[in-house]
Queue: 4 jobs
Job 1
Amino acid sequence: MNDKELREIRRRFRSNKNNIMSIKGCIVDHEKNIKSYINQSMINTLSDDSEKLLSLMKKSLSGSVGINLFDLEYQSMQVMDSEEHKLLMELRNSKLVNEDALNIFFNKVIESVNFEGSFAILLACDDYDVFSYNESGEREEESNSVFTYIVCSICSIKDAKPSLYYSDFDNTFRTTDKFSLLGNPEIGFMFPTFDDRATNIYKAQFYSKDVSNTYPDFIKNIFNVLSPMASTIQKDSFGLCLNETLSDDCSFNVIRSVHEHVSELVQEHKISKQEEPLRLSKNSFRTVLESCGVSDEKVENFESKFDESFGKNAEIVPSAIIDVKKFEVSTPYVSIKVDPERSDLISTQIINGSRYILIRANDSVEVNGVNIDFHAD
């Protein structure tokens, strides 16, 4: 799913925009026991409560592709015969009314996650009438298909401490009883996906709030597909690819050039308004490494290491490895943050055998908010 298709589905999560009849789910305690089951009718839910609940479910479709959101793809044989795919299809096709399928799903989730406290498993099913648009941008009178999908949100539950509140009724402060708060989703998914504005039962969209964890046990038990690499691991792996293969050629100028090159690609992609997310292959980095004078042998070593770390012919989302809005130089004791467009102000040099980071400072310089005079030193 591209960003445009994701936005189209996210807009469904308003009380007057969807066909979600109820929220199904269960509450699980810290010992992994189901405390209660949920079957909340959205028709009978107050408007404010409905909006908050739908907003929470929508967060399972939030974040950035390749950072919080990942495509999970099934093999053809799995679609035909795997128990995991059959269960998700049954939940979707029954519109969450098959109690046996729901209980099997709840237990599989409970076995797959390890949270410190209680948590909630929430499921919603929506029927979306997909309309086509003519060349003038006007919507056709009748929809040409119906996209039926389920969204799952797994949310932590935290106990709120008793606190004081003001009562308008008798103008006094009163103490609230201890109660539980439903947190934002830690994990979530959508099945099937809405690719090319149509149903794709070969894919699911997975969400993780924690960018350092893609919950491989959950993905294995619920989908039985390979777990994607967490974005923090992608960033570390990319750094190791450069460091280990370039060796003494892994200089400040090379890393700055890689940052500038990726930033330019991101900007060009943004200007072109392409719907598909930008993805980079090892060939995307060959040109910039060669332009920095890195030898052919080391460039080939980088490509081999890239294949080893990410998979042959892999493509990665730029934001997973580089923050184009940030440029930072760090030592164990000093951290220097620079406007990415002015990274030219930074250079490195060896003086009398010691390594230095040099900052050109022709403009005013402040220390703890106070302008300083270089001549005074």
Job 2
Amino acid sequence: MRTGLSREKDRDESRDIIRILVVDDHPLFRHGLVQLLNSDQSFSVVGEASSAPEALTLVRELNPTMLIVDLGLKGPSGLELTKSLRAEFPKMPVLILSMHDEPTYAVRSLRAGANGYVTKEEALSSVLVAVREVIAGRTYLSPVMASDVIANVVLAKHEPGADPTNQLTDREIEILERIGKGEEVKAIARALHLSPKTVETHRAHIKEKLKLANARQVARYAVQWVSARNL
């Protein structure tokens, strides 16, 4: 028979467990991540979502301690979800997972309100540390990513605003990258759950902001930009 004292102790212990909502649209990766998190007695995955709208619904229902969010969600991206969370739940920690190891995405994630950034390549080895750092109120970047962010942002030799892509929105950056990787408008639209017309509108804004003459120049610029980032 459980006494009132033991029930109170259980409640106290349950309050110490970090309740995590995992948001990722890749089922196999999400499953592996959930298993890893649940293998630590300090963590409990209380929900899983594959899209930003589903995630917002579950946050309201489950009241997790924090979220782990895939940057490249289909439809509204992880950055857009982070901004929505910041507006509605300003103190809820968010850790971004991303396939991108470029500092641009880490910086944009932090600016959107994320508390940490981990690449998927290193996630299984560092996500437990990252979660603890974020919950403790600290910003987490892997040592390599932190070094790259410092080198590319804090110690950059260029004047602020010298990189024209800084003018682009998060969605425009995502589309620029996909164009640079050779994806056509229809393929980009399918991948991002947008209409082809919306993608073309974003491409037009990219052209205007980068002062390019036409779609062909946008494609050439995008290829060079992606290539330069992979050096």
Job 3
Amino acid sequence: MLDNRMRYENWLERDSEMWTWHAVNVGQFPGNALYTLMARAFAPLPERLLNAAARMEKLPEALAAIRGDLDPARVPKVHAETWARQNPGVISIIDGMILPQAEALSGADRSRLTAAADALKAAVNENQRWIEETLVPAAQGDFRLGARLYDQQLALALDSPMSRDEIKRAALARKQEIYAEMAEIAAPIVTIPANERWTAQRLIAQALEGAAAQRPPREGVVAACEAALAEATAFVRTNDIVTLPDAPVNIILIPEFQRGVAVAYCDPPGPLDRDLPTFFAVSPIPDDWSQEQATSFLREYNSYMIHELCVHEGVPGHYLQLWHANRASSVLRAALYSGPFVEGWACYAQDVMIAQGYQNRDPLARLTNLKMALRTITNAILDIGVHVEGMEREEAMRLMTVDAFQEEREAAGKWVRACVSSAQLPTYFVGWSEHHALRRETEARWGAEFSLKRYHDALLAIGSPPVRHARSLLLNEPIV
């Protein structure tokens, strides 16, 4: 794992030269430098504030260096525009997380903190002017990696034997299987007029309207997530599916400097800070969205989908799995976690919950679960299509909204995510497929000794290596 990570970092630095064109990645550096200091109380507050002051004193120079490194001719416009929306979030960290706690310092230390904050805010504003007036108008790079670079990154990001072609073939085959199952569930839900013949796509779409109609209010997404997470946790405990964490999880809004790419994510403490809170971050509905756009978002993240989201990000998904990983015997396996293992586990966990009867075996819950499976599949097809096959926005939107039943706001956001990231979206499908295969193999080998809790606890105790290595460790076979 360490060897693979070192080769990946070398690829990012030397082969892809992302520091010269990936404005979103490099642009988040200042926000991450401060947010990681202030989000968790891993050290006394005065110590963290002094470190924040030291970093803020250096960050204006860092921003200038970023501007000097970026080549507008290579920066894609979608990257520049996304950074323009994220950059002001650095100031929200200063004003919302650092300065309100400045009273923990006194005298020269406090003066140093406020002076550094003022200087950095001025530098962020200067950076914003440069992004808007220079970078965005001049940005003309191609966001597509192309086959050579994409295949190199995919191999390093996945650390899996599956190639790009194998992933796409498997995804298309699985898509047809999911469609058939969705149509079977939808048939009893939908009444088709006697004189009409509907396609499977129309039948499924109509059935999903029943789920879309049950949604939280515009300001109620976080509250709905809190309720769903509590329900999922109670279900796991009652059904003894896996050992539950004893460290806290807090549902928060995604910090402003990170918004515009993902709808939600899980931010765990590091393996050396294992008892600190995990953050389950949810994107707020932007204030400038119309009611139509907000409704599109809420139709996607309806009450059923919120349960799927909380299982994926929370219990028994990321929060639970990464809590186990932080307690594994290998700190290295926790620190250098495999994307396919982590994302694949969360997708697998959604299936486990439905199979065990979560949400009272409601057919709309199962249908929504399968819609999420389609999203997992579509993520891989989309990423390959965008970066290698020249997929344009119209084709991508049709893939997501028609073939995968996603709402317009979800699909529009995923298009941006595919344009500003690469080789991450396939981790869901690859890991999901590998986790299910490992579960089937282990169940066959263990026979009568197999139980869900025994299997899950044993697998998660390994940490977060690539699934092929987890298999070797779990089944006591040589690492290959």
Job 4
Amino acid sequence: MATFIWTILLLFGLNISNPDARKGNKSYENGDYEGAKTWFYSALDQDPNNAEILFNLGNTLTKLGEIEEAIKMFMQAKSYTNDTHLKALADYNIGTVLAENEQWKPAMKHLRASLQKLPYDSEGQFNYEYALMKSSEEDDNNEQNQDQNEDQEPPPEPSMYAKAVKEQADALVNESRYASAFNLMQEALGVDETVRYYESFINRIGAVNQIEQTDN
């Protein structure tokens, strides 16, 4: 049986004007991921909205097994760039690390988003189809094992993806971007039921968003 193509796409040779970013790239290439992490965080202190530094930091954190934080960095990289290719790479990486941790529905969402930007990526097409298949199998198993009404169950513990999305939503709220935060949480809820853990937060920012729309 075919297996998922585990590929974390990399982005190097950029940010040459930032010496700490260059040192981070070099450390990463040498396999010194802790060193790379230190240099990339230092580079971000100087340039906190640099999507390319955020992207490479995400790759570094993935290598260190800090998956929740890595996903957060890839999401931030997407939000700070208009470069379609970089956005596609970030979605691909998010989908890849989620699939590696068998979170098939959110993985499928991000792999599909990547494919929409890079439609001729054959590996991306394979990975999306594989994640789609695993997600369907997961749905079938859940239906067979479900023996009580979901509405009566307590909120599930949030997955690492749910936690990463919540952190990104918090950052948007801190910037008073309530509509973006609400939409982000709603989209995540559609692919990861554990996002329901943050239901009160979603309701709150939804209410604020509704008030802002009414005022406008």
